[in-house]
Design brief:
There is one protein chain. By secondary structure, the protein is α+β, with helices and mostly antiparallel strands. The protein has a single domain, classed as Porin, CATH 2.40.160.210. It contains five helices and twelve strands. The protein has a twelve-stranded antiparallel β-sheet. The longest helix has 13 residues. The protein is globular and about 50 Å long. The N and C termini lie far apart (about 45 Å).
């Protein structure tokens, strides 16, 4: 297991400080204008919810990013046990800093069962082993993208389409990446679901900028995740290669929508997700 993945697991290992109240740590990278990474907040919130559930797997989550997180202090997670049914269990989680809610999540957990079966098929793409990882890809332009090297990389990424940050040339509204945890994870479905949630926020909102000649980190662009929804059709094994197939059907009124689909190496659709992102042009 890589050091960065081991660090991510430590951030997901929340401290229980009272019944239904957990505390999560986060990285302090010292980068300019650093905010708490949304995928980490979502992963920790899902972990807090899952810690109050037995014998069921998460099948969906719906969340809103309310305020930027402060990376200099821990985050408190308060869990509301909304419903414990025979088939479904529902939890609401509020993430709190400085006495204010910065994020809220609702998650539903379900017993696996049999029913109707059909699934979308993945696009035909190169194998991950034939592609460079993100650091190898950016190395020739290290002076321009040095900040990428300064961040932890618990998730290995192999880009099939060129990363949006590397070119201002408008391209199609799609983005495709192979992803997996950079090491072997514990055999715990909740851990895999939380790491998948973390990874799902790494590239999805970037897709919105593909068809346009500007990027999320431009000085005249205000970009942030607004909400994030996921549906777990099966328990992901995120320490094995998964194809992250993303597209953006619309950007309008300062907001853009991005959709993502995670397929395992056999071509089975495991997770679907939708995210709305702020893409406001400022003067």
């Amino acid at each position: 297991m890589s050091r960065d993945l081991d660090q991510l697991l430590s951030w997901l290992d929340l401290e229980a400080i009272e019944t239904n109240i957990f505390r999560g740590q986060q990285p302090r990278l010292g980068l300019p204008h650093q905010r708490t990474f949304g995928g980490l907040v979502a992963g920790q919130a899902l972990m807090a919810a899952g810690r109050t559930v037995e014998d069921r797997l998460v099948h969906s989550l719906h969340s809103y990013f309310l305020l930027p997180g402060d990376p200099s202090i821990p985050i408190l997670y308060e869990v509301d046990r909304i419903r414990d049914g025979k088939s479904f269990v529902t939890r609401r989680v509020v993430a709190i800093q400085h006495g204010r809610a910065i994020f809220n999540l609702e998650a539903s957990f379900h017993h696996p069962e049999h029913g109707l079966e059909h699934s979308a098929t993945p696009p035909d793409v190169p194998a991950p082993e034939s592609l460079p990882n993100i650091l190898e890809l950016i190395e020739p332009r290290r002076e321009e993208f040095g900040w990428v090297f300064d961040r932890p990389h618990p998730i290995e990424q192999r880009f099939i389409t060129e990363p949006t940050i590397m070119s201002r040339e408008p391209r199609g509204p799609e983005q495709r990446i192979w992803i997996k945890a950079d090491g072997v994870l514990p055999d715990d479905p909740l851990v895999h679901a939380c790491v998948t949630t973390f990874a799902s926020d790494m590239s999805l909102v970037d897709t919105i900028f593909g068809p346009h000649p500007m990027r999320w980190n431009d000085a005249n662009m205000m970009a942030a995740s607004i909400d994030h929804c996921m549906w777990f059709h099966d328990a992901p094994k995120i320490d094995e290669w998964m194809l992250y197939d993303m597209d953006t059907p619309i950007a309008h009124q300062g907001r853009g929508l991005a959709r993502g689909f995670l397929f395992d190496a056999s071509g089975t659709l495991i997770v679907s997700m939708v995210q709305e992102g702020l893409c406001r042009v400022v003067s």
